[in-house]
Write a structure and sequence with these properties.
heterodimer; A: alpha+beta; Beta-Lactamase; five-stranded antiparallel β-sheet; 54% helix; B: Arc Repressor Mutant, subunit A; two-stranded antiparallel ribbon; 52% helix
Amino acid sequence: MSERVVAEAFVELADTLVDDFDVVDFLYQVTVRCAQVLDVSAAGVLLTDQRGALRVVAASTEQIRLLELLQLQTDLGPCPECFHTGRPIAVGDLSAATSRWPRFAAEARQSGFASVYALPMRLRTDIIGALNLFGTQPDALDEDTIRLGQALADVATIGLLQARTIRHRETLAEQLQTALNSRIVIEQAKGVIAERRQLDMDQAFTLLRGAARASNRRLSELARTVVDGSETL
Amino acid sequence: MNENPAVGVWAQIGRQSQGAPLSVAHVCAAVVAGVRVDGAGVTMMASPTARDTVHATDRVAGELEEWQLAYGEGPCMDAFAAGGPVLIVDLGSPDCSARWPAFTPAALDSGAQAVFALPLQIGAIRLGVLDLYRSRPGPLTPPELADALAYADTAGMLLLDGAASTPPDTADLAWQRDDPTAHHAQVHQATGMILAQLGISADAAFARLRAYAFAFDRRMGDVASDVVARRLRFEFDPSPAGHDEM
């Protein structure tokens, strides 16, 4: 992982903070960049639904096994622990975590992961979610890389808030709920496209993103038109 | 550890309905009792032309719904369009008059000083809005917001049932409340697939998925995983009995 790759990642992420900014697309790019730059196998972003649960908003791959591992962490797992304590979680060896998170550790290992990390997404005193990283090797991340991962988590937080002046707690609450709903719109659109074109969800998502870029539209706006039938892809 | 807000919310709704079939009126009365707001209203918005106030707990709530529909502006409209809540802590602030020049003075005149507009939605399925107001400015606390979102969910499900012309079934709603897979990505993906398979709207597709899961006593996420993996398809059957699944 060269410095240039890292710098490019940040520049690219900064470039996305423009007018047609789409928060779910942005968070997806964060996860993809994390996987590349941090040299981990998979990454996901979970956000608080503001009523006690964490919800998946972005994942670096559509593979079911990653999605399930992210969705599994309702009460126990690196992300809930990170979210509730506000501290980074680093487990270099998942085989040592079986009593800490029995089900999560077992399923993660079965999926081929050997180490897991959860980094807090924080705005001042509020923890709004977690960046979840998975490695197929033990100790996939060293301390420097973890620090870099935290910087990417911070970029994700800033992006979510879109440089709006966050004077009020209400703005954060509104943004979180809107982001969660946008994610659902995109999932619904993936389903429509997957069925119509007989694709898997990965391909459907790629097609949707490609169409949004080609027509210079926001990802979630295009997704909405696909679902409500005002447009066909 | 936080208790799941839905449990307390459900108890409050039960106190209002007293065993009768659930209605939006019960949910509105419950949120006023449970969240420390002065009134609530629900407007359903199936389309830009099909908009109707379903219920309002009092004069002020009713007028708020009226002003938004009449002027075509307000926190309710913005929340519906943006797909996220609009939480106005102080209607008297200059931002509000700038943002909603017609609605704001009318709303203040009616007696509202804080308005919290929660869209009733599941992704692109947009059913309407739940509006809460206070006669004094002030924010919802985080636990109040959590509860308000849970009440909004219930109101949304009732509108969905109303749109499907099925009488709201308390057992059905309670069962869904307790389903931990109801928010999984596969559920929304399956909604999209069923929409395309049956050529129906997204809200009808979601209702079908939910009804199937309930009928077979399975979690929505599990049925949805079958749909996504193409082990289960919903096919249109033109017979009066309805749709077939195979």
